[in-house]
Design a protein that fits this description.
Elements: H1 11-16, E1 17-22, E2 26-31, E3 38-43, E4 46-47, E5 50-51, H2 60-81, E6 85-89, E7 100-105, H3 127-139
Antiparallel strand pairs: 1-2, 2-3, 3-7, 4-5, 6-7
Length: 140
């Protein structure tokens, strides 16, 4: 069930990200690591009053909407940042609440070709960088 009034973001996501906007299904967030243009989509869906943890828990219509949102923001990152590759992943090993990472990657980035998780030290956005990234996303 989509319940906008009861939506609560996992504490770790709350700490590591910046809110951009709520979409039809998901909350759009920017990961606070400026080494990579990195977005996170968090479906605002609950089952038995708890946030869902798995893709298969989404209803068919919700899954299609999530795929649409992933497509829109993957295309945005590819075009806006001229990325070599867009990585899309849902792991949930640390943060159980279902969330989708969309990360722009480059052959010369710090961790290429390995995954970005747990590699190196995050470089945090300053206010100007965050405002610019967020404004671009608001238009999309």
């Amino acid at each position: 069930m989509l319940d906008l009034d009861k939506f609560k973001l996992d504490e770790r996501l709350e700490k590591d990200t910046f809110f951009v906007k709520d979409l039809k299904l998901s909350r759009l967030l920017i990961m606070n690591d400026s080494r990579y243009p990195w977005l996170i989509l968090v479906p605002r869906v609950f089952f038995n009053k708890e946030p869902i943890t798995e893709l298969f828990e989404l209803e068919d219509e919700q899954l299609l909407e999530l795929q649409r949102e992933v497509k829109i923001y993957s295309e945005f990152l590819k075009q806006e940042f001229q990325a070599t590759k867009i990585n899309v992943a849902s792991l949930g090993n640390v943060v159980k609440q279902l969330h989708i990472h969309i990360v722009a990657r480059y052959e010369n980035d710090e961790t290429w070709p390995a995954p970005v998780w747990g590699k190196g030290k995050a470089s945090y956005y300053n206010d100007a960088e965050l405002a610019e990234f967020s404004q671009k996303l608001q238009k999309n």
